[in-house]
Amino acid sequence: MVITHGNGPQVGLLALQSDTGAGGVAPYGLDALGAESEGMIGYLLQQAVRNAAPHRPEVATLLTQVIVDADDPAFSHPTKPIGSVYPDAAAAHRAGGGSWTIAPDGTGVRRVVASPKPRRVVELPIVEHLLDAGVVVVAVGGGGIPVVEDDNGMLHGVEAVIDKDLASALLAIGLGAQRLLLVTDVDAVHDDFGGPNDRAVRSASPEALRRLQVPAGSMGPKVEAACRFAESGGVAVIGSLDSLPLLVEGGSGTTVSQGFAGLEWWDSPR
Q1: Of 3.30.70.20, 3.40.1160.10, 4.10.910.10, 1.10.260.40, which CATH number belongs to 178-270?
Q2: Which is it for strands 136-138 and 59-61: parallel, antiparallel or unpaired?
Q3: What is the CATH number assigned to the segment(s) 1-77+114-177?
């Protein structure tokens, strides 16, 4: 089993702390802060898993670099929210000293940074070795540490935060995983979420799920990650962390597979 996680609030807080730190000291880049948050959250998960199952296999956190394209258009169009939600643009500008790019997030606004597409997980062979040894691995935390590869094969960190769902799908595909669970705080993918025609999707083909209109900044990356994984031959499930055992059994959430045709809704009998 491989566990992945996000880091949006944490890396945003670390960036704010770095920006407002000791005078005369240059702030750390987002790649270094991503590594810091990957280690911090990985430590908490690693300890929690061990405490919950002390006699189960060992758990290890792996700092994971993920290669992105240096010319990815995301670098000129920041979209990835990090840090806290502020009530309005004025509050966000005060917090960031006027240097942030901000965007709406729910009823408030948040800082947004570049989020290039993940292309390759550098430490994929190491994850495979750990799994072969029976280790539960915490990897690509926060989408992994964003790096670019130069013409000589050297890696260099970049100012970005990679989407955790797309990076998780990339890692799962590379490992040949059978199932990808994308856990969140809602029960499933919904059509017209919160609206008068709100319906939860029970199962879907990748083609059908992509045709749904879902929020680009929240459910959108999960839908795309699930579709990519399903197209590779696996089964992806999107649903609530509180229903994790049911997600594994197919009794909750939205299941995505090439074996399905179209969409099936939770309020429709099978």
Answers
A1: 3.40.1160.10
A2: parallel
A3: 3.40.1160.10
CB 212 within 8 Å of CB 205: no
pTM for the structure as a whole:
0.90
Return the closest-CA partner of residue 250 out of 259, 39, 57, 17. Answer: 259
- ∠ CA 176-181-183, rounded to 5°: 150
Which stretches of 53-103 are DSSP H helices? 89-95
Cα(51)–Cα(37) distance, rounded to whole angstroms?
Answer: 21
17-59 pLDDT per residue, tens: 887 655 667 788 999 999 999 999 999 999 999 999 888 779 9
Strands 136-138 and 120-121: unpaired
Q: How far apart are CA 145 and CA 123, in angstroms?
A: 11
